[in-house]
């Protein structure tokens, strides 16, 4: 014969509370997951233009730094140094008359078009640019015009 076990009053109350608790249904869980999925999708859609903006901004900053470096190096070495953009590539090459100093790759979504002349920017030993240039840099959403002026070797970036 099985003896019934006795529960104390707090244990009985705890058992009653446990028996009355119910979980979520499958439909409720699916609704919550759907709402979370919609929110995540909307965040991803909103972030995509920001990614494109930061890609081209990062490229322009890197080009600016490299251009200043080329200008300073040309003055320090007292020899011409050039930046040569690959015609159909995604890199530009910095070199002097003897060797390649470095290559810099950039994102494949960035397109570079030269408004005038060839695809080379050359600084002479005084840090001046040898030929005025206009470069159009664009990606899917943004377009910039970079103008190199004869004289001090300065350049300006304008959003179009």
Task: Describe the structure in your own words.
There is one protein chain. The strands form 2 sheets. This protein has a 4-stranded antiparallel sheet with strand order 3-2-1-5, with helices on one face. The relative contact order is 0.12. A hairpin with a 4-residue loop joins β6 and β7. The chain has helices spanning 9-20, 26-77, and strands at residues 81-85, 91-96, 100-105, 111-114, 120-123, 133-138, 143-148, 155-159. The termini are far apart. The protein is built from 2 helices and 8 strands; from the N terminus they run ααββββββββ. The protein has a single domain, classed as 3-Layer(bab) Sandwich (minor pseudopilin epsh fold). By secondary structure, it is of the alpha+beta class. The chain crosses the membrane at residues 29-51. Its main location: other. It holds the Pfam family N_methyl. Keywords: Competence, Membrane, Transmembrane, Transmembrane helix.
What is this entry, summarized?
By secondary structure, this protein is of the alpha+beta class.
Structural shape: rod-shaped
Largest sheet, if any?
A: 4 strands, antiparallel
Q: Helical proportion?
A: 40-55%
* The CATH homology group name: minor pseudopilin epsh domain
Mean pLDDT: 87
In the CATH hierarchy, the architecture is: 3-Layer(bab) Sandwich
The CATH class turns out to be Alpha Beta
Poorly predicted runs are none
Q: Per DSSP, what share of the residues sits in E-state strands of 2 or more residues?
A: 25-35%
What is the radius of gyration computed over CA atoms, rounded to a whole number of angstroms? 32 Å
Question: What's the helix count?
Answer: 2
Task: Give the number of DSSP strands.
Answer: 8
**Which H/E pattern describes the elements?**
HHEEEEEEEE
What is the count of structural domains? 1
CATH topology: minor pseudopilin epsh fold
**Widest sheet: strand order?**
3-2-1-5
Report the structural category. alpha+beta
Distance N terminus to C terminus? Answer: 92 Å
